[in-house]
Amino acid sequence: MDAEIRFPLRLASDGPHALSFIVDRAGRDLLCHVHGGDAHVGSVALSEWRDGRVHTRCLSAEGHREEAIARHAAHTLCAAARCNVACVAGIHFDAISPAEIEAISAAAYSLARQAAGRLRDARLFTELKSSGGTYDRIVSRRAELGDEFEQLFRMPMAAALEMHREAIERQREQRFGGKVGIFAPLYLSNACTNDCVYCGFRRSSSYERSRLSIGEAVREADALHSRGIRAIDLVTGEIPADPFVDYVCEATEAILSETGITRVHLNLGSLSGDQYRRLRQAGAVGYHLYQETYDPEAYLRTHRSGGKREMASRLEAPRRAAEAGFTYVGLGVLLGLADLKDDVTGLAAHATILQEEVPGLQVGFSLPRVQTMDADPAYSPVRPVSDEDFVRSMLFLRLAHPSAHLTLTTREAPAIRDLSLTLGVSKLSAGVSTAPGGYVSTAGNEETGARAQFDVADERSVDEIAALVSEAGLTPVFD
Ligand code: SF4
Fold it and tell me: Which atom of ligand 1 is the closest one to the Cα of 200?
């Protein structure tokens, strides 16, 4: 990924009707030229970035028809770079057919999109690294944690566990009273506006999207309640639109008032402060928002489109949720996307910064690893994480943040989940389905056929997980 742009940025199409597409700086603004064949000035478009929107005007020389190309290029570059853009288009080839004109236009649009992608990435990098932002603070804080992390990773795993066993047990007793919370996710919808390469819900994946009605959501919650669950995480893809937030508010209120579920956390992605406030008022108490990776290049490589591509905004989202009144905020990284040390120490640093910004906030961690069903076709992790390194990472977080909840989901196989109890894990999911409607269907009703987000590796029931916790000398709690 090349986030730095050397101006002028020169792109070209090929073939008998090749176009040149050049973008150059004009101070803080941009000038763009689109030419092919007998170059000239045919149409000129000016797009202004004003009030958070693109405003475009266009002029054409008499008898020239490049307006659509000039308008599209100026508009697209302006939206990507968020500055004013002037575009001149002048294309002339003798004796060309309507089909060839169409192909030339398509090539011009394609070049504009390529240039816009480069400009957008450059802007995102600049915003991210702008002085004093959360990213800078995370990078500087995580550097302080590097030695501790490396020391843990130099030790054989068994020795590291033995060395810290007593401290973990003591802290768990002091901070959590020896309790392990058991919960389940409830998927309301598998629609999403983002395109994360590792996820089964990603926008570019073609399957029929489903969304539970309020009645269906209540029935799902009832099915979980009948299995002993009292605490749920409501999960959806990221849809930052007010009507969708209203729907989740309604589902939350209905579940809390009509079922035996007593605690609702949410996992809906990055939203506005006002949307978080409405969700909090609906009765949800916790919010989970995973950064996925703290490596900007890996972040842009894996989050291909949608609002989630704005890494700087996502870094600020946990604070927005906390300031909106959520008393618990769960953070996480998806292991396998980037360098393990940078991501795990970045996560610990982010939590510290968040707690400094919002005193009294309870934080939690989750460390999902990329799973096969996270994408279709399957996504292969760039930096696969072994079981041993996964366990060491959990141990590192436990020691770095003794008061934070540590959650282990059913993405992990039973052997790792069993071992996790010695690592100070304080929350375990159980009896999980990751598809909307999955609990009612597994209770014996007709299969929903809805797309799941990932394959569940630990299929043990709620009762079996509760027994496992008790056998470890801990107390399973459900609310
Ligand atoms: S990871 Fe979340 S935001 Fe990304 S595609 Fe999946 S559901 Fe959407």
Answer: 6
Which protein residue has the closest C-alpha to ligand 1 atom 4? Answer: 196
For ligand 1, residues with CB inside 6 Å are 192, 194, 196, 199, 201-202, 237-238, 269, 308
The model's pLDDT over 358-411, given as tens digits with 9 standing for 90+, comes to 999 999 999 999 875 556 667 788 899 999 999 999 999 999 999 999 999 888
Q: What is the pTM of this model?
A: 0.83
Burial letters for 400-419: b for 16+ Cβ neighbours within 10 Å, e otherwise?
bbbebbbbbbbbbeeebbbb
Q: Where are the domains of the chain?
A: 9-129, 134-477
Q: What rounded mean pLDDT belongs to the chain?
A: 92
- Asked if 9-129 and 134-477 have one fold, the answer is no
Contact at 8 Å (CB) between 395 and 367? no
> Nearest-CA neighbor of 17 among 99, 93, 113?
93
Supply the residue whose CA is at minimum distance from atom 5 of ligand 1: 202
Instruction: Indicate the class that CATH gives domain 9-129.
Output: alpha beta
The closest residue, in CA terms, to atom 2 on ligand 1 is 237
What homologous superfamily is domain 134-477 in, according to CATH?
A: Aldolase class I (3.20.20.70)
